[in-house]
Design a protein that fits this description.
The protein has 81 residues and is mostly helical. It is built from five helices and no strands.
Length: 81
């Protein structure tokens, strides 16, 4: 895990995390935030690990580095279509 580059880390994220979010986005997007809190925290930790940054890195930076969206933003994006 120590020797993977950022492109491989992005592929891991989009293959194992983002794909599940996109599949269940209607469920995730229409539930209360208290039910999503644990999932969001785990996702943020995973992004820190994949990007090899401290866990106190701002969340906005974590998501922008991977050019991805948070669950509420993803829900809004998919509901536009």
């Amino acid at each position: 895990m120590h020797n993977i580059n950022i492109d491989v880390a992005k592929m891991i994220h989009f293959a194992f995390v983002y794909s599940h979010f996109a599949y269940g986005i209607d469920v995730y997007g229409n539930t209360y935030n208290k039910h999503l809190n644990r999932l969001i925290i785990l996702t943020n930790k995973l992004l820190c690990i994949l990007q090899k940054v401290p866990c106190d890195t701002p969340v906005v930076q974590l998501y922008s580095n991977f050019n991805t969206l948070t669950i509420p933003e993803l829900h809004n994006y998919y509901n536009k279509f």
